[in-house]
Amino acid sequence: MARRRRLEPPPAQDLAAIRAAAGGADGERASLDRLGPPPIAREVASVAEAQRSGIEALRSEARRFRADADRLAEADAAGLVIREVPLQEIDVDYLARDRMPRLDDDAEMLALRQSIERHGQRTPLELADLGASTEPRYGLVSGYRRYGALQGLFRETGAARWSVARAIVRTPGTLGAAFIAMVEENEVRESLSYFERGQVCLRAVEQGAFDTVDAAIDALFDGASPAKRSKIRSFVLICETVGDVLRRPEALGERLGLRLAQAIRADHGGALRRFLGERPGRSRDAVGEQAALLAFLTQLKTRPEPSPPRDRTLPGGGRIVLRRRAGRTVIEIEGVAIDSTAEETLLAAIARVIPAPDG
After folding, report:
1. What CA–CA distance (Å, rounded) separates 275 from 188?
2. CATH number, domain 68-191, options 3.90.1530.10, 3.40.1390.30, 3.30.310.50, 3.10.180.10
3. Of 72, 184, 209, 291, which one has the greatest count of Cβ atoms within 10 A?
4. Fold of 192-319
5. In the chain, pLDDT over 70 holds for what percent of residues?
6. What distance in Å separates the CA atoms of residue 115 and residue 109, rounded to the nearest whole number?
7. What is the H or E stretch that residue 275 is in?
8. CB-based contacts of 116: which residues, under 8 Å, 6+ apart?
9. What's the pLDDT at 260?
């Protein structure tokens, strides 16, 4: 059986030596603590803190840039950002214009050009973005005269500053929306004439923006009274009948225009076209043209009332009707279809019975 060893405390002198050694180590550690970390450690910590601060600043700046970019994109999409667009990238015929084009020597156009030359282009054009793959890239919605003034200045001077236009760019959802934007902008700046209102409605239908003239009038002039819309319809009729032979139709007054529309509805449209096309010395100015239109209406008042239609019932059904309209004789066949042989026979029979003109 092993003998147990009894543990005894170290001698007093050993304990004193141990305590002295421990006290020296604690003092050394305390001294080192008071000195702090060594220089290289302090430098590493400083660099790390600077990096953390720099990274956070960059992240904050990036967030700010993203927010600014988003706001800029929203403003640009809303048409609130002015760009500089080369004139050659603008399709001036994108929409049929509601305002009638003026001549280069028009006093208002000359004044506009002089103003832009002195002060620069103050009011931007409004353009429709047609897509990056199209050529030209943009379609002109409003600012036709400003575009013309810039183009004239560039053509005369060749200065690069007039080869670009200040513009806001929109993305209209439909062609109809572009027409509405054009009409609204011009109505606010200067009220359109009734002929110009009628013309833009007719052109909007021709370009497929609206299915009917009535739909175009309702959309483009939705705030107009029923009476005003009715007048616009009358001027659409003038546009359709004689718009291409009038010299200064934008100067056509409301009262005279309504009288002309009434004459057209009474089947005098053909006579009006012949009168405007054949009269000698056709006036280029508005005063002369309106005087001629008044003369035509005066002639209508002195003409005898049109004779009532005459008709005959055809043996095989249907009827043949003869009408006299503004110096013309019109023969209509109703209720039956005829082939080309019958047409030739009918024309030959009419030619035999109509006498030759005198002289």
Report:
1. 36
2. 3.90.1530.10
3. 209
4. Arc Repressor Mutant, subunit A (1.10.10)
5. 72
6. 10
7. helix 269-278
8. 122, 146, 149, 150, 153
9. 92
